Amino acid sequence: MTPNTDERLASVIRSLTEVVLPHLPPEASLAQEQVQLAVGHLQILRLQLDGIPAFEAEELADTILLANALVGAIGGGKETTAAVGALRAAASAASGASGAEARQGLSSVNRAIEALVGAVSTDGSAGSRTELATIILAYEGRRVQKDRRWFLPFGFDTMETAI
Predict the structure, then answer these.
(1) I need a surface site. Which of 74, 84, 105, 137 has the fewest CB within 10 A?
(2) Nearest residue to 89 (alpha-carbon basis) of 71, 101, 75
(3) Are 80 and 122 spatial neighbours (Cβ–Cβ below 8 Å)?
(4) Per-residue pLDDT of the chain (163 residues; tens, 9 = 90+)
(5) Phi, psi at residue 76, to the nearest 5°?
(6) Residues 6+ apart with CB under 8 A from 58
(7) Where are the alpha helices (DSSP H) in the chain?
């Protein structure tokens, strides 16, 4: 019988906490810290496992909205125009993707946005430079709130503001 994903993650956690960590020498504090960090991430993954596909799909959809907003608002010279076209193509290719394709699409769209930021710095119109920052900051503000909710059960959020 093949163990399910949760059982496999639990097995790795058990191995790290019951075998690896106790056998690290006391002077290996960085190694101990890294094992504990890995265990923490694995525990979070176990708890979030069922929600990961929906979270990733939402993140991709939000990033495609950002890409479309940028495509509609940014202009400039040759490099900026090419970067806008590449972003449009990446967003279109990633639209509707799920699973591994969604993760790959998200990475592709994010790289295209990064390239657009560089291109706008090179030959974007003055208005585009301002609009680029405004659009990205507004998007990131909304995305941060979603990410905070995603990790809220784990006590990472130390911000005073209620979400």
Answers:
(1) 137
(2) 71
(3) yes
(4) 889 999 999 999 999 999 999 999 999 999 999 999 999 999 999 999 999 999 999 999 999 999 999 999 999 999 999 999 999 999 999 998 988 899 999 999 999 999 999 999 999 999 999 999 999 999 999 999 898 888 888 887 766 555 5
(5) 160, -150
(6) 146
(7) 5-15, 29-48, 52-73, 78-94, 100-123, 126-151
